[in-house]
Amino acid sequence: MLLSETSATVVACQQAVLRFYYALDRNNYPLAMEQVGPDCIWERGGVLLQGREQIEASVRKKSPTQVARHVVNNFALLRQEATGATAVYCLVLHLYDDGSQPRLPVPGSTPFLMVDVTCELKLEDDRVWRIQQLDVTHTFSYAREVTTPLLAASARK
Description:
Mean pLDDT: 88
Strand order of the largest sheet: 2-1-6-5-4-3
Shape: globular
């Protein structure tokens, strides 16, 4: 069964978003940057980033002992045109960092934050959908000690 053009666009846009976070979580920065357009705009941590180089430099600053997992939920394409699309989704971020070399599985985690994301995507000249802009609205934010429940519990004793 062949996908309709609309369904194929939804899948391609969703895959670009999912590959972006998958790659970030695994420190695969080349794969992550393949998912964003050359002039992508993203306000991250209060800093406006523009372009692959600034975005990559920012995400590479994470702690080498941190384990992160982004969970994308409720993905929907709200607008689709020939070379542009608008997607929305809810993003939950789990973080864990006890300062030691990362190992899986980590000992439990409560989400660090939940955000609503509006994502503009563009069909590039190579016929690949890429993230053009990420607009993030914080829904729930948690204190850092929540991301390390075992350390937080031991500190209270």
